[in-house]
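pinned: reference chain
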Amino acid sequence: MKRGLIVVDLQNEYLPTGNLPLTGIEAAVANAVRVISYSRRTDVAVFHIRHESGDEDAPIFVKGSSGADIQLAVSPVGHEPVIVKKHINAFRETDLKQQLEAADIQEVVVIGAMSHMCVDAVVRAAADMGYPVTVLHDACATLDLTFNGVNAPAAQVHATMMAALEFGYATVKSVDEYLKA
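pinned: its structure tokens
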């Protein structure tokens, strides 16, 4: 099966200097670099996703801002496509599916940010479209969340999302497990 790597929203906005810093983003990006390098060496197609806000007054991902730029460490090279999205789900109102089909991709690997939002959405959508999906949990990052007075630390948010994805949508592995296989 021909494999594609989907790199979700590894943008400057999520760095400690950005407007939406994520817990563990540096470690996730370091692992993403390893996966992207491996993909390039082994002819796994790499698809970059970049979120841009549709609202110029948005506090994050403003089109043309440095926060909306893909992090330098994981920048596209050559003809690697960049799919620009305005919604959480990278398949919604983009040509991601068409690009996967044009490259004859039959299974996808997903890395990126945020675990509980855009990673979750693209994994579930890809699975619903029939793609076998693998998520590399330590090449993803998220942040602390609060709901109804309950504070959930990023580690718990991330673990909950990975458990939910593994339960019904994807195989979840570490980068080391993936690279050894």
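why pinned: The chain has one domain: 3-180. Residues 3-180 form a domain with the Rossmann fold fold (CATH 3.40.50.850).
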